Known about the structure:
290 residues; alpha/beta; TIM Barrel; 8-stranded mixed β-sheet; two-stranded antiparallel sheet
Amino acid sequence: MDYEGIVIRPPSEAGSLILQATFGCSHNKCTFCPTYKGSRFRIKDFDRLREEIDEMAGVGRWRRVFLADGDALIIPQKRLVRILDHLEDRMPWVERVGVYGNAKSVLRKSVDELKELRERKLGIVYLGLESGDPRVLEQVCKGSSVQDMIEAAGRVREAGILLSVTVLLGIAGKGRGREHAMATARVLSEMDPHYVGALTVMVVPGSPLFEKREAGEFVLPDAFEMLEELAVMIANTNVSDCYFTSNHASNYLPIRARLPLEREATVERIYEVIKKRDPSLLKPEFLRAL
Length: 290
C-alpha cells in the first residue's frame, strides 16, 4: 500500500489501519496549518482504494480503520458508502471507522445520511473547532462560524456517531487567551462532545501564521499563559459526559480528565503547576511536535 504526501491521524488512531481515501484537505486555508499547503485536494480513485483494502485484508486484523487525509467525510455519500461497504465485505472484523470532518463536510450530509454511514461502522468523527471565539475563527481563516460548528456537532451526535472535538491553546495570541478560553468553553458546552482534545499551537515555518509572527502581527503566549487557557477552558466547560485530554505531542502538560466528574481536581492540578512556574514541570521544547 502506497501513501502519498503527508499522512496525519488523531493520537487515538495510533493503532488503526490508515487508509488514504483522499489527498490533502478540502479547506486547506487555516493559517496555523502548514500540512497540505501547495497540495491540491482530491479523492482517491475507488479502484485503487479497493485494491489497497484487498491487500491489507490479507495482512492483519485491525479492529479500527481511519480514513485519511484531512477531511475524508467530504467524499460524496454514495462513494463513501461504497468504500465502507467494501471494507465490511473484506474486513468484517473491523469494529470502527474514523474520519476527520470539518463543519462544511458534516453539514453537507443530512442526519439520515450520517446514520447510513454509522450503520456501516463509521463510529467517530474528529472535528476541529480550534476556538469558540468568532474573531479568532475569522483570523485563522477557519471557514466556518461558531453556529456552523454547533450545528455540525448536533448532527453527528443525533446520528449516534461519537464526536471528538479539537481545540487549540494559544491560537488567539498573547493577551486574548482568557476570551478565547471562555468562548471555547461556551461552545464546547453547546456541542457536548464525547471527547475533547486540546492541542497547543506551534508556529511552523511555511504557515501563514509564521509569516504573521515574523511581521509582528501575532505574538505567541508563553507556556504558562497557555496552561491558564487550558484551566479556564476546563473550569467553564459544562458537558454531560466527556473525556478531555491534552496528551498531544504539542502540549506542555499532559492532562486526562473525565468531565464533569474530574473537573475541579484537574483545574486545581493545572493551577498548581502555573503557580510554581517551574519549567522542569513542563515538556521541554525539543520534545514538542505536531
